[in-house]
Amino acid sequence: MSQVYGPATSPVMSGGVSTPPPVRLPDPASLFRRRAERLRALSAGHQLEPYLAFLADLAAAQDRVKPVQPAPVLPAADELRRSREFRMPALDRSRLAREPAVSDTVDGIVARLESATMPEAARAALAVVSATGPVERAQMAQAVLDNAVPFEEVAEHVLVAAALQVVAACVAGALPVGALTTLEECLCPVCGSAPVSSSVVGWHGAHGARYCTCSLCSTSWNYVRVRCTACGGTEGIAYQEIEGGPDTIKAESCDTCRSYLKVFHEVKDPALDPVADDVGSLALDLLVAEAGYRRSGVNPLLTGY
Amino acid sequence: MNMELSRRAFLRSAGAGVAGTAIGAFGFGGIEAAHASSIRAFKLTTMVETRNTCPYCSVACGIITYSKGDLRKGEKAELVHIEGDVDHPTNRGTLCPKGAALLDFAKAETRLKYPMIRKPGSDKFERVSWDQALDRIARLMKDDRDQNFVAKNNDGVTVNRWTTTGFLAASATTNETAFVTYKVVRSAGMLVFDNQARV
Prior knowledge:
GO molecular function (chain A): ferric iron binding
CATH architecture of the largest domain in chain A: Alpha-Beta Complex
Protein name (chain A): Protein FdhE homolog
Function (chain A): Necessary for formate dehydrogenase activity.
Distance between the termini of chain B: 37 Å
Strand order of the largest sheet of chain B: 1-2-3
Structural class of chain B: alpha+beta
Strand content of chain A: 5-15%
Mean pLDDT of chain B: 88
Largest sheet of chain A: 8 strands, mixed
GO cellular component, one term (chain A): cytosol
Number of strands of chain B: 8
Domain FdhE N-terminal (chain A): 20-181
Oligomer: heterodimer
Order of helices and strands of chain A: EHHHHHHHHEEEEEEHHE
Order of helices and strands of chain B: HHHEEEHHEEHEEHE
Number of domains of chain B: 3
CATH topology of the largest domain in chain A: FdhE-like fold
Helix content of chain A: 25-40%
């Protein structure tokens, strides 16, 4: 059958040189379902199989809890215009923590996770979280955003972080992408959070470009390759990988600030997920940490690394 | 340094941040420890990606060269791959067939690494020093210019042309180098000329 092509996918463009889009918003409808599928696929035969399987259930719960209620308030058009003009994030991160939908989403995730297989400690964390009220949850959400999670309540905060991710992704997904632009620093143009990891993508019109993925709202933004995402330096960048492993997952290390961020070569393996494979490649974190680099990627599911 | 990262490092060192891991907190500490001890058998390898400019033509496409091993750490580096730089505004990752074959160019056994001369009547090239080469080129250029320089055309108009010698300059140069190249070559009257300043 004949098919109508939009300008972005016109076959006439196939030989052209196109500029990669600065920002790509998440699609909350498929984001967590795909992440759950990837975690499930990764878990088979993995040394961390039980944890990855548990995270697959958590991502599935994140998927089924949508649409978030009550519907979050989106920034007005003139606020978006002002943020863009001054190259500021479109959303105020701390306002997300106080969003009423976070508390309801926590309840939704806990209810959907209860039937899953998990250790006693995880079940206890679910019980603790479900006993908290909206005020406590807002405080926990704020602690997640501040990266100041108390070490005796890590599991509880990860569950709240999961709810925050759903709310943030739903807000980000509803923004007009044309109103957004990349920031001076390597931070999310929607919520100003640090990236979880970065990917060299194979998208049409952006083949081979590098995109960082937001640790909170899963928005992707274009960022120059061979440049440190933490300090912006271009000297002393190297790519560390595990000898004999697939050459699709590398740690981009910077000798200026001694930090690293993972780079997933989606262009070689389209199945790679910025969050799921970040957990799946924990072995790389352990080896790179031994080499003296600090992890700059933020991932609640790997809190403590 | 990114504010976020330095804050996290500060919180960690101040003891305000996390000590335990999410994996342990959910009750998976056993497999986490097993995973950590099993990876000790593995080693890291380093790949260095370096931005450069394609040396062929005046379009000066951006390229990224990949080498295995890090010279800065005293390792031996081996060039393994060259591809177009997606972030470069001129070529956005694309390369022409010549540029795409750059790896073979860099590693070719017949690659010219120093000046060589094949004297008239000889059947082989001999290595010469840069001084010898430059002196000989300057001598030949001067002789050719003295013989073939056209100061005035048939109508008596001053043209100052030297069309019997051409000059092809590199692409991977700075603005300043391109400017000086242009001035030197054009002021000698040379018309057959290409360098990066053309684009």
